[in-house]
Amino acid sequence: MRMFWWAIPTVTVLISSPATAQQPSRQHDEFESAKALHDSGHYKEAIERYKALLQKRPEDPLLLYELAYSYMATKDYSHCIEYSQRAGATRGKIQAAALGALATCQDDSGARAEALATFAKALKSFPKDPTLNYNYAVTLANTADFEGARARLRTAIEQAPDRASSYFAYARVLEADKALGAAVYMYLRFVMLDSRPERATEACKRVAQLLYVQVDAGKRQVEVDRPNAVAAETSKLLTTLNLALATSAATAGSHQGATSAADKAGDALTSFLQIGLELRGGDKASHSFTLDHTVPQLHSLVDAKLLRVFLLHVALLAELDGAAAGIAANKATWEKMIRTLSTASKQSDHL
C-alpha cells in the first residue's frame, strides 16, 4: 500500500469528436456518465462503460487512461498497467497523466524498479508536470527518499499552487522526516484549500496529534513543545487547541514589538516553526519553501479576522473539546470562513 497515496485527479479533457455531428454529444454524455460512476465509487460499472466506448474508439488515449484509472481504483494493477501503457504511447494532453498512472500501478503491484524507470523516463519529457511530480514523490517517499520526495512536491506545488493534496503529501513527508513544525504548516495550508470534512479531517487530526498530549483517561491537555517556548494567554475556549498558543492573533502580549494582529500572527507563526526546527534539528532556511507557501495564506485569514475561527474549525474536525461550542458562539464568522475557503477550494482539483 502506498503510504502517502491520495488518488491522482481525473483528467478533464473532453473526448475527441467522432466524424458525425450527432455522435459527439452522445459519446460525451456516455463518457461523463462513466466518470460519474467512477467518482461515486462504482468502479466496476465505470469500467464496463469505458470498455463499451472503447469498442467505438479503441485507441482513444483519454478513454484508455480513464479505464486504467478505474482499474487502479479496484487494485487490478495488471489491467491498469495494460491500458495506461497504451494511453501513454500517444503524444498529447493525456500522455503525462497516463505515464504517471502506469508508474503508480507498477509501484503498487510491487514492481518498484520498473516504476522508478517509468517516472524517470516520463519526467524527461514532462519535467514540470504537477501530477507526474506528485506521484513520483509518493513513490520516493515510500523508499524513504524524503529529500527527493520534497523536491518533487515543491515542483508540483509551484506548478499548480491550488492543488490541495500536494500540500497534504508534503506535510506527510515532512512529518516522516521529523520536521514536525513545518508539517503543521503544510497540513493547515491543505485545510485552507480543502476544508470539507471528508477531506480535511485527517489533516486536522494530524495537527492535533502533533500539538497535544493525551493524559488521564483520554482527556486532552495543552502542552507546548518546549517549556517557555510560547508564553501566551489565550481564551479558555482555545486552550484545547495547542496550535492557538502559537498562531492565534488573540495571544495577547506574547510577542514584544508586534504592533498589529497581522504582525503578531506572523511573528507567532515563524516562532512556532522555529520551535519545531530547534526540537528536531535543521535550520530555518531549509524550510523557507514551507514559510513562503503557508504564512502569507495564513496572514490572509488574519487580515479577514478569520484565523481564530479557522483554528476552531481545525479543532472541531480534530474532535477537540470545546470546539463545537466555540463555533456555535461564532456561527456567523465561521460561516463566512467556510465561504472564503470554499472559494479557494473551487479553484483546486482536489488532487
How would you sum up this structure, described in words?
The protein has helices at residues 23-39, 43-56, 61-73, 77-88, 95-108, 112-125, 130-142, 146-159, 164-176, 180-193, 197-211, 243-247, 261-280, 288-292, 295-303, 307-317, 323-329, 331-345; strands at residues 212-215, 219-222. With 351 residues, it is an all-alpha fold. Among the domains are: 23-122, Alpha Horseshoe (Serine Threonine Protein Phosphatase 5, Tetratricopeptide repeat), CATH 1.25.40; 210-345, no CATH class. A two-stranded antiparallel sheet has the order 1-2. Helix 5 (95-108) runs antiparallel to helix 6 (112-125), helix 10 (180-193) runs antiparallel to helix 11 and helix 10 (180-193) crosses helix 13. The chain is globular. The relative contact order is 0.09.
Descriptors:
mainly alpha; 2% strand; Serine Threonine Protein Phosphatase 5, Tetratricopeptide repeat; two-stranded antiparallel sheet
